[in-house]
């Protein structure tokens, strides 16, 4: 089932998320809905707060990046094959040089900005079968994981840009929170008058 994606300005995007256990109600259905929602919106990642649920779950599928002709065939294969569910994730370490990449977010449509992140990430997480993993990733995979991890920490990519850039996009962000944006996927907008 395709869920509405929560827009910038909704308090759930800033909430502290909670860990879940294997008995979380209808977890497999929730994960399937997250995949379907992300794919319908042509995303590469989606975190639970983006569909209005403040739990530590996110999904990542980097296949859309795999057709970049600037990447080596090995990098393209790795990106094409990377599809994972992260439950109760904790970043253990971020290392390597910082590098800039133009990021966007399904909750902040039609806004893209250059964001600096470290090259490598080591993360401990549970998969959808509640098996524990600790793995290290680099490059675009690391970046998508870092972006989605930020969501479960209540952080948005716009928090990582300069104050000047924040001022330049302020009107766009205000318009998104008021529903004044055009997207080709379902969204849920916060109502400035407090109604839903």
TrEMBL record:
<keyword id="KW-0648">Protein biosynthesis</keyword>
<dbReference type="GO" id="GO:0042586">
    <property type="term" value="F:peptide deformylase activity"/>
</dbReference>
<comment type="similarity">
    <text>Belongs to the polypeptide deformylase family.</text>
</comment>
<dbReference type="InterPro" id="IPR023635">
    <property type="entry name" value="Peptide_deformylase"/>
</dbReference>
<keyword id="KW-0378">Hydrolase</keyword>
<keyword id="KW-0408">Iron</keyword>
<protein>
    <recommendedName>
        <fullName>Peptide deformylase</fullName>
        <ecNumber>3.5.1.88</ecNumber>
    </recommendedName>
</protein>
<feature type="binding site">
    <location>
        <position position="105"/>
    </location>
    <ligand>
        <name>Fe cation</name>
    </ligand>
</feature>
<dbReference type="InterPro" id="IPR036821">
    <property type="entry name" value="Peptide_deformylase_sf"/>
</dbReference>
<dbReference type="Pfam" id="PF01327">
    <property type="entry name" value="Pep_deformylase"/>
</dbReference>
<feature type="binding site">
    <location>
        <position position="151"/>
    </location>
    <ligand>
        <name>Fe cation</name>
    </ligand>
</feature>
<feature type="binding site">
    <location>
        <position position="147"/>
    </location>
    <ligand>
        <name>Fe cation</name>
    </ligand>
</feature>
<comment type="function">
    <text>Removes the formyl group from the N-terminal Met of newly synthesized proteins. Requires at least a dipeptide for an efficient rate of reaction. N-terminal L-methionine is a prerequisite for activity but the enzyme has broad specificity at other positions.</text>
</comment>
<dbReference type="GO" id="GO:0046872">
    <property type="term" value="F:metal ion binding"/>
</dbReference>
<keyword id="KW-0479">Metal-binding</keyword>
<feature type="active site">
    <location>
        <position position="148"/>
    </location>
</feature>
<dbReference type="GO" id="GO:0006412">
    <property type="term" value="P:translation"/>
</dbReference>
């Amino acid at each position: 089932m395709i869920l509405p994606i929560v827009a910038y300005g909704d308090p759930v995007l800033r909430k502290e998320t909670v860990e879940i256990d294997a008995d979380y109600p209808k977890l497999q259905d929730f994960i399937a809905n997250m995949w379907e929602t992300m794919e319908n919106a042509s995303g590469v990642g989606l975190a639970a707060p983006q569909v209005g649920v403040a739990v530590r779950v996110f999904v990542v599928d980097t296949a859309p990046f795999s057709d970049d002709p600037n990447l080596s065939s090995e990098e393209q294969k790795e990106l094409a094959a990377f599809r994972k569910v992260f439950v109760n994730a904790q970043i253990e370490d971020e290392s390597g040089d910082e590098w800039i990449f133009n990021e966007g977010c399904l909750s902040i449509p039609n806004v893209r900005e250059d964001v600096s992140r470290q090259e490598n990430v080591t993360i401990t997480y549970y998969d959808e079968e509640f098996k524990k993993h600790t793995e290290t990733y680099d490059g675009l995979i690391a970046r998508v994981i870092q972006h989605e991890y930020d969501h479960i920490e209540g952080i948005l990519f716009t928090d990582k840009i300069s104050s000047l850039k924040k001022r330049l996009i302020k009107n766009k962000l205000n318009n998104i929170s008021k529903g004044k944006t055009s997207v080709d996927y379902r969204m849920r907008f916060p109502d400035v008058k407090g109604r839903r």
